[in-house]
Write a structure and sequence with these properties.
The chain has one domain (4-87). With 88 residues, the chain is mainly β. It has a four-stranded antiparallel β-sheet with strand order 1-2-4-3, with helices on one face. It contains one helix and four strands, in the order ββαββ.
Length: 88
């Protein structure tokens, strides 16, 4: 998600700020809003979502008496956070 200007439901201009990922938290959104709105801002909406995922890959070969190979599994979460503000 890219930060940028948006039209709010009442027709006024606002900013949509994204700060997803494990390296950020909602405080990161508030800091970015402060940088983009140096005179302050009103919070219109804030959201945070975590979407778990798991991916497996691998291969087994051989016969019933002898099997070789293996699987690798990786899991985690995709974290999305957004803050919608109106600058003062």
């Amino acid at each position: 998600m890219h930060d940028g200007p948006i039209t709010l439901p009442d027709g006024s201009q606002g900013k949509l700020i994204g700060c997803g990922g494990i390296q950020h938290d909602m405080a990161s959104c508030y800091l970015k809003a402060g940088e983009q709105c140096p005179n302050g801002y009103d919070i219109i909406d804030e959201r945070g979502e975590s979407h778990p995922f798991i991916v497996s890959s691998g291969q087994l070969t051989g016969s019933p008496a002898y099997v070789q190979g293996g699987y690798t599994t990786v899991g985690g979460s995709i974290i999305n956070r957004t803050l919608m503000v109106r600058c003062h």
